[in-house]
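Hey team,

Filing this mostly as a record. A colleague (T.K.) asked me to run one chain through the structure pipeline before their review meeting, and I want the input and output archived in the tracker in case anyone asks later how it was produced. No errors, nothing strange. Just documentation.

Input sequence:
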Amino acid sequence: MAVKSRPYVITRGKVVFDYSALFCDTPEALLKSSLCEEVVERFIERIASRGSSLFAFINEALPGISRKDLAKEIVKLFRFLFSYTADEVMEMNEEYRGLLSDREQMYEFIEELYNFWRRFERFFYLEAPARSQFSKSSIHHAQFIKANEELKHLVLYVYRRVSEHLIGKNPRVYRQLPAGVNMGVLTEKADWDCPDLYKPLKDVPFIRLTLMEPPLILYPEMNKRKGNFEEIKEIPPGVFNIEPTEWFCFPARVGDLTGFIYFHQDFISLGLSLSNLFEIADYDEIVDKRPDLILVFGVKETLPSKTVFYDDRNAGILVGLIQHDREVDYFGYFKKMTLTLHNIVMLKRGRLPLHGAMVYLKLKGGERANIVLVGDSGAGKSETLEAFRILAEEHICEMKVIFDDMGSLGVDAEGRIVGYGTEIGAFVRLDDLQPGYAYEEIDRSIFMNPDKTNARLIIPVTRYHHIVKGYPVDYLFYANNYEQVNEEHPVIEFFKNPEEALAVFRSGARLAKGTTDEKGLVHTYFANPFGAPQRKDEHEELARDYFNRLFEQNIRVGQVRTRLGIEGFEQEGPKEAALELFRLIQKG
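Output structure:
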């Protein structure tokens, strides 16, 4: 197995480092680390390229020194300033008199360097000894959490001490900023039932524990998804010839399936954000087990298109492959490819996958119902759930989210139609949430591109127990976001028979909201581009069967007009839909 030449990598605005190899437990160790020196070097290069007065200042104060050596001298000065005041340093080291003669300029340099460091997306990982079951021990969990806390406090302590010794006074306001890392991960090697084709993946460590410093704000290069997930007939040669030390595996519980989601370190911020979306699989679900799904995100070999999948019938695994490309630097590709693979497995197992949301509601009058809303991206599924939450104080005594974006219908032992989920979290548009909600949940959220159109929030919304339990369906609605409400088109309208219902669901009409590259009124088969069109014949057969059963069991099927796609109704539409649903449940 190859060994990394350095204990860290700085790539695409991210710093990823091996904490065991770059362990710093003292200020001296921190200031002597190769990472510290490279960050200073990169900062100097940045201010030099911008023609900054700060660069002119240090360049004149340290004449005849190359940029690379400037970084060494600056770090050396920091080591002195940590232990001595600026006046004491000048007495001992005449060469630093130029830098310390203008302390305001030097202080500004330190502040800008500190901000430069904090603008990186910062991650550390700690790998356990192979096959040790290290991650199962609560003692090691505590040590891992302690390591993260100590690093954060160490960086803050060094920054403050150097600044205080420079300017000769203590600040009046201390801000406890996350100065260490944004996320840390505990990883571990594990033996799994690996077919020969996938042997190169076997040395990639599994993520067993994650730790984040919320609010986590990330800036992936893209803010929407485009294109389709295409099926290929065979795996291109060389796809799995990877360098394991550059990869991680997130073992996800995708509903009741197990998915091994491999990602290259260049996409670590997106890969680790899966922690807010999927439950991490237990050790016993990995060791000596074969996954239902494998996703490899960041393939450097050329693929037929950027996002493809392969049905490995011999191994019994659905495999997704995503090209290493800046155009896929968007969390939606992680989420939707995983769910596409899930949906195809569901079809094989006789379940009907649904692109939608399901919620259990108990009203204050005692009435209760399990409601399923089906619709493509931007149709108003999550937004209607959000409206339920807002109106909960007045109408609801209990609410459980079964799924927020993708689920499936199955038949339980009693022959009832029941709904299952896939994710414990939600990936929702900030623009469509009630103002203030994102801030109420800021302490456990991951924000993505909050300054752009289609800004997103990843937030836990339910527990794994609920998504795999199987809740009987009482109402199934199509989320219609494009029709205005009037006498002919009420907020809620029920279908008379399975064929009438299937026609609307099959059409999958919606007004695109800018969440993908689509515009205007578009149609997607069954509002579900993730598995349904790729397996249309199997899906159509199952859909007919399930819709017939729905009507036979007197489960009410209709459409609810959320009007989310109509300008001016982004919040009022889902709110009115939620109120109408409350009235419907109260009537029984």
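Quick notes for T.K.: The chain has a mean pLDDT of 91. Residues 138-167 form the longest helix (30 residues).
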